[in-house]
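Morning!

This is the sequence you dropped in the shared folder:
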Amino acid sequence: MVQADRFQIHYYLANESHSMDAFIRNKCETELLAIFQEVCTILGTSIRIESIPQEHGGLREYWKVYGENSVQINTTLTLLAIIISVISTVLSRIPISDPEKEEREKMIQELTIEEKRLTIEERRINLEKLKKEMKDGHPAIETIEKAAKSVESNLKIQSRRSNFYRQLSNYDKVTAVGFSALDSANKEVVQEHWVPRSDFHNYVLADNSFPTETIDGATIEIVAPVLKEGNYKWKGIYEGESISFSMTDAEFKNAVRLENVAFQHGSSINCVLQIHQKLNEVGDVEITGYSVVTVLDKTDGGNTHEMPQGKKHRAYKKLIQSQRSLF
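The structure's back. Tokens below.
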């Protein structure tokens, strides 16, 4: 692989302009730097980036990329080329479109599954293999693709890329953006990845929704039940953490209001718990709320009582499992 140690961001501007709003540009490049940082975290390495003088033609930003230390620079140059090439590809490859929320959730679920599959240990092994092949002088395409795959499935990178293109979408002066891997003489090592303005919207996530996680058999110690009508939150302790949650099990709520179910110190429920989540701007998953949809059992002082709806729920699960076993 030809050695590359520079990353070029080329903003194509309307009317052959050479100036750009500083706030927009700085916000965009903050997202790009975060992507570089996340890629390095995934690959188990680190780099240093310095901005270097620009040239004419639209607005070009050059980043000089250094390896972990000067001793390693000869073996690191190929890795830098890989990192730069992978990032250029990630920034210019149009992701799956998401016109409907359901499709968006499906895509995120697939990404989440892939994230879990690509464990830290797998990434370490892939990186060690990559470094070994670099020392031999010719990293295999398959090895590079494995590194790229772990990058492309990362939710933080998906979010940061979305933020980058959202900024540019709101700034009419930019007509296109390009990304290039360059050598020390500013010669293109890989042909520029070019994205026209008409495609910017394809990279912007339609919303920050994340699939609701359902825990069947969650135990919540009740701290403060709601004993009257209204959309008030219950309070409890789940996995050592204090939480507020909505009780959406109508049968259980009615039983509480009619005083058919009472609580004492240490009362707990075994339930079907829904954890509502979203992606924040940096791609981390945040919990936005909890809902108890079915109370299975209630426990007081070591005595457990199965709720009628809990019995129905278990019977339904058993029926579904038996049907699946037939196929």
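Headline: The first strand starts at residue 6 and ends at 13.

More detail when I'm at my desk.
O.
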